[in-house]
Write a structure and sequence with these properties.
homodimer, 344 residues, Rossmann fold, 6-stranded parallel β-sheet, 6-stranded mixed β-sheet, 12 strands, 43% helix, elongated, DNA-binding
DNA sequence: TTGTAAGCGTTATCAG
DNA sequence: CTGATAACGCTTACAA
């Protein structure tokens, strides 16, 4: 069992022959304490392996020095599966939290749960970061409520006019543009699009806008019959591609709104004896780690997760400090790999 | 800014016309409170969106209902890169924590930092889970110290006799055996081994023991000259394979102590115009998500991350409750894929 | 069944 | 520069 004799600031006070507040001040390098006493106190604290009790400190200070990261997915069953893109974000968020001096509370929730109230209300965290894919129309309501309560939080997602709360996301329009532009430049004229365009997923819809923009710039007409719905996972990509194939419409390339969809689509193409990229070129979105390793390696739109994590954390921290922060889009970057070939 | 008027149990007490402890009891469904008052109190609490202040509760109760997950890596620079195997574990750990009613504090540390003291000492967490690759001889010392302090913690790693602390890990000997056995059964007789066999990495050494055991069972002599050192990353695998190739010794297969090493090795083989699996068969270890997607898909030893997360969390929770727990090995499973071909 | 009183370990305030 | 005192919001004795 744990050593029960956890030293307190009072213990140190006795040993050092000073008062408790003096100890507290000394340990925080307050200039109000003479160098002499400060050093003495700090030495004793080190000897006893004293650590400030964060619960007591937090209770007194009414703050926690903690940021909660909430990941939620609406998707299919597997509760231990976390979207790889969020996982990449996790690394940089963790790092950024550490260097900002905050602890990170991590939680993975189904969208259905009551994630509004849990963390900040219970004083578990000073601020919240939300990462999630799910029904936008659904979660924007909760966001609005949180916002009205004055919570400190950032959400990874699309930036939309008159949106409640603070959003950080990648420039999906630009990303969608880069992908389609690349295919169009390579000579493709009939480019299928796999993604969900309902209002539930404005992020994906923005990617579609980029796709449209690229077509317009190249003076190529859109073929609506080449657009098939898919939300996010590999399976969905597989099914959407099968639908596309069985529709019998001609196409030479596919733009997907996620790498997982692209991977599913490639599998479906293979199953139909079509080769990538020689028969069909494929572009993804996200640049998850797998993208580089699959065969053919996947041309895709990279979101800068490193920068994203940093911006997310910096933003909540600013909010916590009472500064006002604006929603912001991060630039994307096209990673050209094998899945597009060079059909000049 | 945040609503400053956070309701307290005292507020509710006033509104309900009862005392503060009664409120506290009612909210925890204590049977000591009459049904009538309980319902009244709970209703008011809901109306006010009251949440128990965890800092106050924790301070009073001297516990936190939180488990800290500390990931550490000795490895190369990239501080935002987290070993994918640990990331897979993260999902199931999170899930298990949630269902056990604990919050999860997440932190990523370089091995050099002072991870002994931080969490439990500061009353941030009731228990600790360590995931890490690094110099075993180095971190076992810290573990011994933590253990002596009576901390509640589990470490993912090798189970070794007379080890301080509590370890949960996969059965590395069995895993190494499965991999080598598979190759031997396929007719391979000169199987190279890529991994670190120093005392710094007992886990990898155990995998090697499995490799030896399989050779013995098949009556095949080991060729020491086919053993090359590599710790964990892709680059290391690449280099080790190059060393192997330039040694000019004959071999028809490679067993690697991690998937990342295997991926690096495959790249090196490619770069030398050798084909996998027709020229050289390759087996990995871990079954990270990429393994299934690379080409050729990687035959590898799967660690059951789902079960592992559950066991890790259950173990710390037991420790926290003062129960004694024994170190434990989880079984592994061979995932047969393309990288080994079928050289019957 | 309910209320009273005390205390968890820290830090802010104010007086010396 | 230092010390006494109070307070953060909750829960556990104990008393009624």
């Amino acid at each position: 069992m744990k050593d029960k004799n956890k030293p307190t600031s009072l213990d140190i006070a006795h040993l050092a022959g000073v008062s408790q507040p003096t100890v507290s001040r000394a340990l925080r390098d307050s200039p109000l304490v003479s160098k002499e006493t400060r050093l003495k106190v700090q030495e004793i604290a080190r000897d006893l392996n004293y650590k400030v009790d964060v619960n007591a400190r937090n209770l007194r200070a009414q703050s926690t020095n903690t940021i909660a990261l909430l990941i939620f997915e609406d998707d299919d069953g597997d509760a231990a599966f976390i979207n790889p893109f969020f996982l990449s974000l996790l690394g940089s968020i963790t790092r950024a939290c550490a260097s900002a001096g905050y602890d990170l509370l991590f939680s993975f929730q189904q969208l259905s749960q009551d994630w509004n109230a849990e963390y900040e209300d219970a004083n578990k965290a000073d601020g919240l970061i939300f990462l999630g894919y799910g029904d936008y129309t659904n979660y924007i309501k909760r966001i609005a409520k949180l916002d009205a309560q004055g919570a400190h939080f950032v959400t990874w997602g699309p930036v939309i006019k008159n949106q409640p709360g603070l959003f950080i996301g990648c420039d999906n329009v630009q990303g969608g543009f880069l992908a389609a532009d690349h295919l169009l430049k390579a000579g493709h004229r009939r480019i299928a699009f796999l993604g969900d365009l309902s209002e539930k997923n404005p992020e994906l819809e923005k990617r579609y806008q980029g796709y449209l923009k690229a077509h317009k710039e190249h003076g190529v007409a859109i073929s609506k019959e080449l657009i098939f719905s898919a939300t996010s996972g590999e399976e969905q990509g597989y099914k959407a591609a099968l639908n596309l194939l069985s529709s019998q419409h001609q196409f030479t390339a596919i733009a997907c709104t996620s790498d997982l969809i692209a991977i599913g689509a490639i599998k479906a193409l293979r199953a139909s004896n079509l080769r990538v990229p020689s028969d069909v070129a494929v572009v993804g979105f996200d640049d998850i780690p797998i993208a580089e390793h699959i065969s053919p390696s996947l041309t895709t739109v990279q979101q800068d997760t490193y920068e994203a994590g940093k911006v997310l954390v910096d933003s909540v921290v600013s909010l916590i400090k009472g500064q006002s922060v604006n929603s912001k889009l991060l630039p994307t970057r096209l990673m050209v790999r094998e899945s597009c070939g060079t059909k000049k």
